[in-house]
Amino acid sequence: MIYPTRRAVVLMALGALLALAVAAWSSGRWAMALVWPLVIVLLVGLDALKSRGPLAVALELPGSAYVGETRDATVDLRLGARADVAQLALAHSPVVEPLGSDRSEVGLAAGAASVRLPLAMLRRGTARIERLWLRWQGPLGLVWRQHEQAVDQPFPILPDLRPTQRLGATLFERYAVDGTMRQFTRGEGSDFDALVEFRPGMDRRAIDWKSSARATRLLARHYHGEKNNQIVFALDCGRQMSEPVAGLPRLDRMIAGILLTAWLALRLGDRVAINAFDSRPRVASGLVSGAGAFAEVQRLTASIDYGVDETNYTFALTDLNARLSRRSLVILFTEFTDRVSARFLLATVRLLIRTHLLLVVVLRDEELEAFVEARPDSADDVTRAITAAELIRDRQEVIAELRRLGVEVLEADHERVAPAIAEAYLEIKRRDRL
Known about the structure:
Elements: E1 2-4, H1 6-25, H2 35-50, E2 55-60, E3 65-66, E4 70-79, E5 85-92, E6 96-98, E7 103-107, E8 112-121, E9 125-137, E10 143-158, H3 162-177, H4 180-185, E11 191-197, H5 209-215, E12 219-224, E13 230-236, E14 244-245, E15 248-249, H6 250-267, E16 271-277, E17 281-284, H7 294-302, H8 313-323, E18 329-333, H9 339-352, E19 357-363, H10 366-373, H11 379-404, E20 408-412, H12 417-430
Parallel strand pairs: 3-10, 13-16, 13-18, 18-19, 19-20
Antiparallel strand pairs: 1-10, 2-4, 4-8, 5-7, 5-9, 6-8, 9-10, 11-12, 14-15, 16-17
């Protein structure tokens, strides 16, 4: 495809002005004014011929990427035409976005170049680069020659494993050094392990008086922490969870916490299940165990889609409660901004906590807090701050009501949510609350 540049259009317009000037100065010599546009047309045709040449374009994309990170796409090109600069653009799917301008300037050396285009991974899913456009000017700068190439190269955008890789081993080692991991397996647990001789410093309530009478020495019951606990991640994937926090949807922030906590739980001998819901249950997995099951957890979290419906707590949590046959730790990831939906959540929570231990995880709404703390400069700023303060107050009232019911509530910053969830799980396990 060939079309004129701005320079060619301006020169042609100057030719029209010149024709008017010649006609006004000497009406009998108006034909001389046609020389200018004819010269421009000839120069444009010459520039179009000189911009021709063989072309080779190769696009290399990452094999996969994590949501929220930036990866590079590499374009290698070689032009047979004489050109110093080319412009490059990509047609992409909504889950990925080029950083900076959509049109990139590429400097050519001997007609060749290799350029890296940074791509921001906005959401989970399958990213596609469907087409590539490349254009360059002729040596006179009068024409653009544009090349369009179909690409259609997909690559998956996966849940973010970086917090798991960075923090998982650190948390595991830290708790092991502190003796917490040992306490999970032996110590003040709930399952009877053995009778041991009573020593000073041991809890007197652990003395088994009947066995001590038969053995004629003090014996104490030694317990070990129960393994095979059920950890159920209930993830709200409704409309509010699709809203971005610091450029990343709330849903993906929560999934990073799920992966880190699941990695620890599987290595501590517990069983893990994933449940996702909005207006109805979307993902309801069975319980998996063992370190090798983490790949299944990752696959399940990658399949959770962004919902557009309002969350139906009654349907989702009642269905979850019916499928749990024994006491479990249910970690509910959600977001509530109005008291109407929160009322349904509170009603269902009362049913769930009769049998199970519930931990509710929400993200701090830093945007609302910024509206409240900002200095108002206009009446709109005052209205915005008052509305934000009312929403924050309603939110804190719901959190206070949940805590009054005996529910653990974790309200964390988006940067700290993954380690905060993992540490809350380890603390519950250390206290043997299951």
